[in-house]
Specification:
By secondary structure, the chain is mainly alpha-helical. It is built from six helices and three strands. It has a three-stranded antiparallel sheet with strand order 2-1-3, with helices on both faces. Strand 1 and strand 2 form a beta hairpin. The radius of gyration is 18 Å and the shape is elongated.
């Protein structure tokens, strides 16, 4: 079963939100659970049923990998280098070259009016591409 564009977008959105996403090879379904490593003190009980199902049938699932910090940084840098507002471009590049680049970039984007939505759209497309790349590299898991 081939994943639909909507499913790919859902996986990308969930990974970007810090979730873990799994694809069941046989049933063609997606299961999403909270990434407990990223959420200290989270209520694991809410996700217990899904977690047990995945653990019990681990070989039946493919786990999508979220963006690591290096790839996330690369996306921010690519966005910064390709916007048409030179003043904001300089601020974003400067933010990325300071300590705590993720926080500094976010602050600049959150205060950039129309570029905030452009950032979200750009990042979403890159996250979708990230998911599609994993599918392409693991075609056997997706029966394509």
């Amino acid at each position: 079963m081939k994943l639909t564009e909507n499913q790919i977008e859902e996986i990308a959105d969930n990974l970007d939100s810090g979730m873990r996403c799994f694809y069941h090879h046989k049933a063609g379904k997606i299961i999403t659970i909270l990434n407990f490593e990223s959420w200290d003190g989270a209520d694991e009980e809410s996700w217990e049923e899904e977690s047990k199902e995945i653990d019990k049938n681990w070989d039946d699932y493919f786990e999508f990998v979220g963006l690591d910090s290096h790839e996330s940084f690369r996306i921010m840098a690519d966005f910064s280098e390709n916007i048409d507002n030179i003043k904001l471009q300089e601020k974003l590049i400067d933010a990325l070259n300071k300590p705590k680049p993720f926080r500094n970039f976010k602050w600049q984007i959150d205060n950039s009016e129309k570029y905030r939505q452009l950032w979200f759209d750009f990042k979403k497309l890159r996250c979708i591409h990230w998911v599609k790349k994993q599918i392409d590299l693991n075609k056997d898991d997706f029966n394509e």
